[in-house]
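User: I'm curious whether this sequence folds into something compact or stays loose and floppy. Could you predict its structure so I can see for myself?
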Amino acid sequence: MVLSRFWLAIFISSIVFIVISLFSGNSYTLDFILNGKKDDPILISEKYLNQLPVFIKDSIEKAPEMKMVVNNNEANPDTTYVYNNKTVKIFSGVQKSDGLLPTCKNSLLDLILPLIAYLAFFCGLMELLIISGAAEILAKKLSPVFTKIFPSVPKNHESISYMTLNFAANFLGLDSAATPFGLKAMESLQEINPDKDKASDAQIMFLCLHAAGLTLIPTSIIGYRAAENASNPADVMLPCIITSFIGTIAAFLIVGIRQKINFKSAALIVVLVTLIAAIAGLLFYVNHLDLIGKNFFTSNLSGLMLVAIIAFTLIFSLVKENKFRAKNTTVFDTFVVGANNGLKTGVIIFPYVLGMLVAISFFRNSGLFEIISNGISFVFSNAGVSKEITDSLPVAMLRPFSSGGSRGFMIDSMRNFGPDSFTGRLSCIFQCSAETTFYVIAVYFGSIKIKNTRYTLGTMLLVDLVCVVTAILVATWFF
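Assistant: Here's the prediction. I'll summarize afterward.
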C-alpha cells in the first residue's frame, strides 16, 4: 500500500510539474520527456532567424551546415543553435535520463533480458543444489543462526540456503548471481507465508538487510575510480565496508526491535564477532599489499568465488548423481528445469520493474528531482554543512531510485571535483553503501505478487539515511 501510494505520488507530482512548466514557459516541448534519450541536448526554444541577435544570426549564416555551438563544454554542454526549415532550434543542457518510450524499450532490452538470462542460469544451478541435497546440508548447518534472525522460518528450511547464497553473492559484489538467489529465497519464504498478499516478517527482514548493500570488495567502484585516474582506486574500500556494515547492523536492529527478536542469543553474538574478525583480517591482509597486489586481489576475488560456487555445484551434483536417478532425471535435465523456472520468474517481474522505472524517468526529466535536490543542498549548506558534502548529496538522494542515475552523478562528481577530492570519494561511498530501494522492492515483492509490503519501504529508506550519515562521518574520519 505504501509503495503504491509513493509510486503514484512520484508519477502524479512529476506530471503536474511538467504541465505547469510547459504552460508557464519554463519548458518548450514535452517531446524529450516522452521520446528523448539520456545525454541528448534539450530543445528550449525555436525562433526565426531574424529574431536572433545580429552577431548570432551572422555566425549561423557563416557556420558549416548553419549550425553554431556557443561555449561548448563536454562536461557542461552549452547553447546550440541549429538552422533548419526556416527556423532556428535552440538547445541547451542535456537530458538527465531516458524518456518514457526509450525507458520502456531499454527496460526490456538492457535490463530484463539480461536479468532473465542470469535468472535462467543461476536458477538452473539452484535446482541442482536442491536435488543433490547441498541446499539441505547448508540449511542444517546455518539453521541455529537463521532461526534467531528469522524466528518464523522453520529449522532446516530450504529458504535458509537461498538467503545464505544471496548474502554471500552480495557480499562479494556478484550482482548477477545475487538477484536469482534472492528471488528464489523470496519464493521459498512465500510458501510458508500465511497471508499471501502481505509481506511476512521473514521477507521484510530479508529485504531490509539488503538496504545497506553490504559488500566486501566494491569492484565496480574501484573500477570507476581507476578509469578516472584516481591515485589509489581502492582507498575507499575500507570506508565502504565500514559504512555498509554499520547500515546492515542498523537494519537488523530496527527490524529486530519491531519483530521482537532476542538480541542476546549466543549464536548471533558468535556470528557477529566472527564476521567482524573475518572482515578485519581480510582488510589487514589487503592493507599490506602494494597497489598492483591490491588491484589484482580485488579484481579476481569475486570472480574466483563465483567460479568456485559453480564448480562446487556441478561436482557435488556429479558425486550425488544417484539422487538424480532416483527422481528419474539427469543433472542436465534438472538444470534445464531450473532454468525454465528462472525464465518464468523474469517474465513475472517485468511489469513491476517497468512501472517503477518509468515513474523514476518522469521524476528526473520533469526537473522536480533537481529542484528538490538543490533545495536540500541549500538547506544543508545554510546549516553549516561544508560544500564538499552538499556537492555529493545528489548521489545519496538518487541512489534509492536509480543505480544508473546515481552512478552518473558519482562519475560526474569525480570529473568535476577530482577522484581524489573529498567530494569524489564521498560520492563513491554513497554509491557503494546503499541499495536501489525501489527497484529491489519492485523486483522481489513483484516476483511473488505481494501487494502489502507493510513497513518495508519506510525501514529501507531509514537504513539508507543511516548509511548517508555514516558515510559522511566515515569519510570525514578517513579523508
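Summary: The mean pLDDT is 82. Strands lie at 41-48, 67-69, 80-84, 87-94.
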